Amino acid sequence: MDPMEIEKKSFQIISRELGNKKLMPGTEDIVKRVIHCSADFDYADNLVFSENVVPILRNAFLHGCNLVTDTMMAKSGISKPAAEKLGINIHCFIADKEVAQKAKERGITRAAAAIERAAALPGPCVFAIGNAPTAILSLLQCVREEKVDPIAVIGVPVGFVNVIESKEMLSNSKIPHIVARGRKGGSNIAAAICNAVLYSIVQRV
Amino acid sequence: MDPMEIEKKSFQIISRELGNKKLMPGTEDIVKRVIHCSADFDYADNLVFSENVVPILRNAFLHGCNLVTDTMMAKSGISKPAAEKLGINIHCFIADKEVAQKAKERGITRAAAAIERAAALPGPCVFAIGNAPTAILSLLQCVREEKVDPIAVIGVPVGFVNVIESKEMLSNSKIPHIVARGRKGGSNIAAAICNAVLYSIVQRV
User: Fold this and answer.
1) For residue range B56-88, what is the model confidence (pLDDT) as tens digits?
2) Chain A residue with minimal CA distance to B33?
3) Which of residues 139-178 of B touch A (CB under 8 A)?
4) CA spacing 20 to 30 A to B204: which of A12, A95, A147, B179?
5) Of B1, B160, B186, which has the smallest distance from its Cβ to A10's Cβ?
6) What tens digit of pLDDT does each residue of A150-201 get?
7) A86-91 long-range CB contacts below 8 Å, 24 or more apart?
């Protein structure tokens, strides 16, 4: 069976099982792709979208922004052909040696230092955070200090400590965002959200 | 808060919430790390371990085997410092040009062709499959044809089409395996299982 056929059939099953579930108009592709990558229907309830965040993301991707992830895993999961076609530069500074050095010197996490490094990138920037709540906290701090003005933030870290709180802080901010409420999330979820938006612009390959 | 402290506290929360849940002795670290990476307690019930698969995996990793993943995302998620320390070579052939060419010529998925390529690797091999059911089917075919004799297979693809069936076939085989029953799984789950075994041998960094 052709992989595109399998994907099509998978989305039909997801749609059928969602049944009459109300999803926010314009977010359906994203919710379904997240369920597709996790087989977890909780995301039909967990995902929160700020007003107009989907067209904001589409517009940013259409014009070839920077896309910053907090993990190499999220970076790996984002469609390279789609990103290249749109001139999107995907960055992840978690494995950067200077970032590691700065984190050590200042007693902060590498994830936080990596976000500070990304804040210095020239040009418009979307952030996709799937792992580290400290990455969200660091980003919110950079915004308060006017070091960065993110176009939008995909905030879906996973875990048990500071995760819910960091996502609530992002939800309560004025930054356009997609957040997975509660403990669930992950690098795979962050990548799936990016891919759903990318595939709404360029054909899936 | 120090990342290692956060992880420790997370595992305490997971242990507390698992309560009196019976886990197979020797598999606790793996189950908890999978829950840690997904915040999904379903894995306390979903994960199936064939007899002695954990010591078999530990022994393979201790002696520096090949570790083959079906996605770049799973490869990215596996601890490089731990793998390097043990002399484990992590391979993923999904983006290999020759593999793509062969898949096209023969009308099979790239995931299946990538497993055939991996089967030709010299030396002992563990497979970690988090995405493609066709990767499991291809691997079982290679085993039947005596092209490869895997030390163990981590079979945790996610999805809605052929996924449950592929995992049941692996469960019913004589190959040492860890399988996530049902639809759930993913590259993050495959990486978390590998990391749990790695961290039982070398210290987490």
Assistant:
1) 999 999 999 999 999 999 999 999 999 999 999
2) A159
3) 158-163
4) B179
5) B160
6) 999 999 999 999 999 999 999 999 999 999 999 999 999 999 999 999 999 9
7) A86/A61, A86/A62, A86/A198, A86/A201, A86/A202, A88/A61, A88/A64, A88/A198, A89/A64, A89/A65, A91/A66, A91/A67, A91/A118, A91/A121
